[in-house]
């Protein structure tokens, strides 16, 4: 069934399919009539296909959102949701992949590719995966605002279980796949067991080894199609020495391709997912602007003033979100 089209909250067209997380082949088939220039490209340089085991979620917001979160002591759907195709009942988070999870995914790739790889070889192998994780899904920057809340997945699900599920385990379902110009978003719906009938048309999220995203052992396992916004590197396998090398491509050979991410949509309706003020502040960092920005972006100095205004008793300085490249190379980010 071809993808359908709707308007998002900003009045832009987006293409979607309900109740499925489309794999890449199915997406190409069902979006064929749309003529997406990124999706149809074939000569993409060789790149890794990792599996990330993700234990944190992130929620980006702007100054107005920060104020609301602090006053409400938690997260709720914005009041102005009249143009929301999801009827203003879902609270949105994204997977937050940590440097340790990138390194673990890299080790899994090496072990899958080289059956005789020793532990020493795996430990000593130069880091390479971070050079490919350049899509906005991995970015330290944000289009939505300057404030990023990053929570352990376990804390979010536990708060949801206690506040929305009467202590029972939340239910997870395959909600939709959405195609934008260059981005593909797979959404997992989380809801209370009391709403089973309301959301029964969406399949349960099961532990399928071929699925784009599953939930297992307290983590989301994510198997992305593509992890780079711009494909400026090529993966080179050196089987004789159990090594994967990265070759930088000249600009004419660089390719732009789709990239995908996973969103977690919590059904909260008009209620608030509550956390105490200390928890909120502990999990808050500053984000630089990613373009094109949707929310209003503050400078680092403005953000520090805002955070001090809303958490006057907190002595810890506001930290900046660190890029994966900075983590793996030690190169210091530009100062503000």
Describe the structure.
This protein has one domain (4-328). Helix content is 22%, strand content 28%. The protein has helices at residues 24-30, 63-72, 99-113, 119-124, 153-164, 277-282, 300-310, 324-329; strands spanning 4-7, 13-18, 52-54, 56-61, 74-75, 90-95, 141-142, 147-152, 171-179, 183-191, 213-216, 219-222, 230-231, 233-238, 243-248, 255-256, 259-267, 273-274, 284-286, 288-289. The strands form six sheets. It has a nine-stranded mixed beta sheet with strand order 1-2-9-10-17-6-4-8-19. It has a three-stranded antiparallel beta sheet with strand order 3-12-11. It starts with a strand and ends in a 7-residue tail after the last helix.
Approximate helicity band: 10-25%
Unreliable segments (pLDDT under 50, ≥5 consecutive)? none
Mean pLDDT: 94
Helical segment count: 8
Q: In total, how many domains does the architecture comprise?
A: 1
Q: Round the Cα radius of gyration to an integer and report it.
A: 20 Å
Q: The biggest beta sheet, please?
A: 9 strands, mixed
Element-by-element helix/strand order: EEHEEHEEHHEEHEEEEEEEEEEHEEHH
Output the structural class: alpha+beta
Strand order of the largest sheet: 1-2-9-10-17-6-4-8-19
- E-strand count: 20
Strand content: 25-35%
Quote the distance from N terminus to C terminus: 49 Å
What spatial form do the alpha-carbon principal axes imply?
A: globular
């Amino acid at each position: 069934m071809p993808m359908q089209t709707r308007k998002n909250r900003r009045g832009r067209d987006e293409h979607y399919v309900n109740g499925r997380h489309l794999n890449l082949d199915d997406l190409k088939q069902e979006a064929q009539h749309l003529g997406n220039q990124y999706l149809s490209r074939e000569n993409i340089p060789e790149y890794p296909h990792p599996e990330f085991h993700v234990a944190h979620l992130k929620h980006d917001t702007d100054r107005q959102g920060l104020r609301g979160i602090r006053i409400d002591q938690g997260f709720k759907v914005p009041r102005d949701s009249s143009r929301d195709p999801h009827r203003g009942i879902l609270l949105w988070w994204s997977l937050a992949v940590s440097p340790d999870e990138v390194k673990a995914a890299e080790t899994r790739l090496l072990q899958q590719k080289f059956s005789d790889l020793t532990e020493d070889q795996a430990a000593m192998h130069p880091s390479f995966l971070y050079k490919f994780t350049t899509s906005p899904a991995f970015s330290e920057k944000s289009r939505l605002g300057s404030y990023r809340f990053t929570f352990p997945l376990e804390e979010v699900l536990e708060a949801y279980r206690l506040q929305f599920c009467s202590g029972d385990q939340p239910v997870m379902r395959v909600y939709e796949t959405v195609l934008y110009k260059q981005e593909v978003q797979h959404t997992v719906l989380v809801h209370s067991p009391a709403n089973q009938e309301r959301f029964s048309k969406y399949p349960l999220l099961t532990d399928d080894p071929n699925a784009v995203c599953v939930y297992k052992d307290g983590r989301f396992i994510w198997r992305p199609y593509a992890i780079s916004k711009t494909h400026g590197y090529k993966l080179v396998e050196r089987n004789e020495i159990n090594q994967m090398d990265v070759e930088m491509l000249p600009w004419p050979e660089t390719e732009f391709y789709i990239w995908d991410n996973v969103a977690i949509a919590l059904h909260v309706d008009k209620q608030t997912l509550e956390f105490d003020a200390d928890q909120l502040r502990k999990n808050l960092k500053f984000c630089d602007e990613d373009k094109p920005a949707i929310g209003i972006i503050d400078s680092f100095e403005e953000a520090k003033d805002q955070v001090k205004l809303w958490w006057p008793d907190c002595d810890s300085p506001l930290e900046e979100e660190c890029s994966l490249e900075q983590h793996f190379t030690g190169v210091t980010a530009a100062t503000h």
